[in-house]
Amino acid sequence: MSRVVPLTLLLLLGCGNAFGVLNPRGPIAAHIHELWWLLFLLALLVFAPVLALLLYALFHSRAKESAPRRDVERRLVVGGGLVMPIVVLSAMFVLTIRSTVELSKQPTTDLTIQVIGHQWWWEIRYVDYGFDTANEITIPTEKNVRVELQTRDVIHSFWLPELSGKVDLVPGHTNAVWLNAKEAGVYQGYCAEFCGLQHALMKFQVIALRSDEFENWARAQQRNALPPPDALAQRGLQIFLTEECATCHVVRGTNAQGGKGPDLTHFASRRTLAAGAVKNTRDALAQWIREPEKIKRGTTMPPTLLSDADLQALHAYMESLK
Ligand code: CUA
């Protein structure tokens, strides 16, 4: 028992750091957080007396049958088995309905972003600005961002614990979730619905920037890719176009117009590869190109067998896609 308590505490602290459910940083998450505590306290109201009675029963031998004792028992059964559940469950019902109504209110929209789930990555469309990106959603702080959720294959779930609740991406239907980040920063998001082999590696990040920084970022993303800066990168672009890359990926401003995988026009500005599976570094990219199965088994990204020289040229090109 003495070991269990600190372990549980550690686990809870671990959850707090990893998921931030207990650390809301936006109005919707704050509301859910408040509801969570209220439900937790109500559950405690039932759990604590039940535990106390259980311990009492364990350590006290049964007294002889008597009229006063039967009276006590009857009161316990009626109070604990009827009155208490009615009070607690009614309170939970009212609180949950109140939150459901509150959270379904639609605030005025400052920005609309479409998020499309794929096995196993997120396509991000900035419909107001006319460009696409993947796996990283940049938003302005203090603005109401409407995120429209769709899926191209199975059911996924969009979960950003510090800013919003979970909302499913359902085939043939568009759901919406609202984000409003009070502070600039990076928020970790997850797919919260089992969607196949790499469900656990279907992560995303929300990057909240001050409004002026966001506008600068969006203007940079709207631009087509710059021409390769040198001969090595130029060769990299040729490899990109002649190997399989261009069949699935778009690089705006080039002949690469495949629509199956993530848009790579500003690939070098991203922090991670393969929906948060690994950091976007040179070594990780080399492995992702040559042996994607080692990073993400079951991925639709095929292996591309390149010589060291070709890989170096392709790197030079990918790194120029800022
Ligand atoms: Cu997508 Cu789990």
Quick description:
With 322 residues, this protein is an alpha+beta fold. The N terminus is likely disordered. Dinuclear copper ion (CUA) binds next to loops.
Please count the beta strands (DSSP E, at least 2 residues each).
Answer: 12
Radius of gyration over alpha carbons?
26 Å
Describe the global form.
elongated
What's the pLDDT, averaged over the residues? 88
Helix/sheet category: alpha+beta
* Helix percentage: 40-55%
The kinds of small molecule bound in this structure are:
dinuclear copper ion
Count of helical segments? 9
Distance between the termini: 54 Å
Strand order of the largest sheet: 3-2-1-5-8
Topology as H/E string?
HHHEEEEEEEEEEHHHEEHHH
Largest sheet: 5 strands, mixed
Query: Stretches where pLDDT falls below 50 for ≥5 residues?
Result: 1-5, 13-17
Determine the strand fraction and express it as a percent band: 15-25%
List the SSEs and their pairings.
Blueprint: H1 4-19, H2 27-59, H3 67-103, E1 111-118, E2 121-126, E3 131-134, E4 136-140, E5 145-151, E6 156-159, E7 166-169, E8 175-179, E9 185-191, E10 203-209, H4 211-222, H5 231-242, H6 245-248, E11 272-273, E12 278-279, H7 282-290, H8 292-295, H9 308-320
Parallel strand pairs: 1-5, 4-10
Antiparallel strand pairs: 1-2, 2-3, 5-8, 6-7, 6-9, 9-10, 11-12
The structure holds dinuclear copper ion.
Residues 117, 120, 156, 191, 193-195, 199, 202 line the site of dinuclear copper ion.
What would your notes on this structure say?
This protein has 322 residues and is α+β, with helices and mostly antiparallel strands. The protein is built from 9 helices and 12 strands. The chain has helices at 4-19, 27-59, 67-103, 211-222, 231-242, 245-248, 282-290, 292-295, 308-320, and strands at 111-118, 121-126, 131-134, 136-140, 145-151, 156-159, 166-169, 175-179, 185-191, 203-209, 272-273, 278-279. The protein has a 5-stranded mixed β-sheet, with no helix packed on it. Strands 4-10-9-6-7 form a 5-stranded mixed β-sheet. The radius of gyration is 26 Å and the shape is elongated. Residues 117, 120, 156, 191, 193-195, 199, 202 line the site of dinuclear copper ion.
